[in-house]
Amino acid sequence: MSERQDLFKYIRRTMYCADMHPIHMERQLPHFSRNLGIWLEFSFEIFLYFVTTHIAILYICTMYLNYQQGDLELLVNSLMQTIIYLWTIVMKLYFRRWQPKSLKDLIDFINFKYKTRSAIGFTYVTMDDTLAMSNKWIKWYLYSCYLCAIFWLILPITYGDRSLPLTCWYPFDYKQPVIYEILYFLQSVGQIQVAASFSASSGFHMVLSILISGQYDILFCSLKNILATVAINRKNMDLSMLYELQESEAEEINEYYCSKEIICDVNTLIRHKTTYEERHDFRYHFRNAFKNCADHHRYIVECLKKMDDFYSPIWFFKTGEVIFLMCLVAFVSVKSTTANSSFMKILSLGQYLLLVAVEMLVICYFGEIIYMNSQRCGDALLRSPWYIHITEMQRDFMIFLQNTKKPVQLSAGKMYTLNIELFKSIMTTAFSFLTFLQNMDESNE
User: Which residues form a coiled coil (predicted)?
Assistant: First the structure.
């Protein structure tokens, strides 16, 4: 049987880096130095807020001081960075200060109550494949975000002119010895915080969606093997005949989202021992097995409700932020290309543009996956040889199918449904704004 594990190990580390989740340093230190751990963690949080906030303020000052000069590229670039850093600050506050209880409840509810494998039957699936897929996806996603941040940090090194990664106004000469090194360090920390905050917020959404999809896989396999579970828990039911009926069903492509079905040897299946008085009637064992599936389905729906309540306000504002960022980054990228800017700068802007689009695609894609999985409970149930006991199961089947008929849809502000259509709409709107900006720029020239 698959062992219970911490499902959020990697994404939690990214939250630690962005200070979006408490590290609890006092728990790692001896009892007499716990106050020191609390003070260090608080100081770390204040320092990160200072770094991100002061960069956002400097960009606002840059826009204010250069507004009359008519340099649209500089203004758009400053506005782009301002939006990025303000969003970083909001994500930190939302996860760490505004909704820490909801975040902890969501993680604990999934971590402590998820099923590690499907019910006993002719086949089974576990959470091992789901966890492997979740860890693989989140690692690649994190590496991509941090790589983009690192590209911005190495630009001044390639130029060799003591410039800073972020071009913003300072009230003093930042190229002075020591001052330049300090500012370079602060901007480096700021860029890493941007990468950590963006990847943690959308990466956590991705991890949740994959894990819940894995729970759907376990539910589907339990429903498919519902009669096998009943037969194994009874003494007088022929397993071989039932096994042949179930195996005669045509194999379905993409039957599970991320799990691999493991086939059991029918001769090694052992009846479960219970503390109740042994009963052999079909109805009794069927109701027990079916109740476990219904309880698991309620657990999954509750997970999705908690997830939607936590993320729905964020994604409502995220749609607007992505529209503006896509438009602004694309505009600056086009201007840099026509102005014969360095290849490294164009590459960095292109990475920004790609990551903004990929982040929104990740959010919408996994919303679509959840929607599709939530509709497949009835299909999974019909994969079993249900027809041989239809008279005993009909009422329970109909109640279950009625309760699972309505699909679950993740939302943005309870107004928009997260799906691929929303992603297409956002991209279309963003490039419409880009055309408007380019027309404004041409008229200024």
Answer: none
DSSP 8-state code for residue 117: B
Query: Residue 345 has what pLDDT?
Result: 66
- Region of residue 238 (left: phi > 0; alpha: psi -120 to 50; beta: else): beta
Question: What pLDDT, on a 0 to 100 scale, did the predictor assign at position 191?
Answer: 93
Rank 72-81, 264-273, 358-367 by mean pLDDT and report only the highest: 358-367
Query: Is 328 or 208 the better-scoring residue by pLDDT?
Result: 208
| Cross-strand partners of 412 | 416
**DSSP state letter for 68:** G
Percentage with pLDDT > 70 across the chain: 87
Could you identify the residue written with the tokens 């096998």? 228
pLDDT band at 239 (very low <50, low <70, confident <90, very high): low
Task: Write the CB contacts of 320 (distance below 8 Å, at least 6 apart in sequence).
Answer: none
Please give the structure tokens belonging to residue 26: 């006092």
Written as six digits, the tokens of 216 are 């759907």
What 3-state class would DSSP assign to 235? coil
CA atoms of 244 and 410, how far apart (whole Å): 40
Decide which of 388 and 94 is more confident.
94
CA distance 234 to 268: 15
pTM of the complete model: 0.90
The residue written with tokens 């917020």 in the block is 201
Rg of the chain in Å (alpha carbons): 27
How many whole angstroms separate alpha carbon 206 and alpha carbon 225? Answer: 29
Residues in CB range of 340: below 8 A, 6 or more apart: none
SS3 sequence of 264-284? CCHHHCCCCCCCCCCCCCHHH
User: Can you tell me the mean pLDDT for 413-431?
Assistant: 92
DSSP-derived secondary structure letter, 97: I
Angle at 323 between CA 187 and CA 151, to 5 degrees: 30
Q: Rounded to whole angstroms, how far apart are CA atoms 116 and 2?
A: 6
Cβ within 8 Å of residue 309, ≥6 positions away:
102
By the 8 A CB rule, do 386 and 289 touch? no
160: left (phi over 0), alpha (psi -120 to 50) or beta: left
Q: Which residue has the tokens 């590290």?
A: 23
| Residue 36, phi then psi, degrees to nearest 5 | -65, -40
Looking at residue 196, its amino acid is: A
**Domain spans of the chain, in order of start:** 8-443
State pLDDT tens for residues 261-306: 888 876 666 555 554 445 567 778 888 888 899 999 999 999 999 9
d(CA 56, CA 210): 34
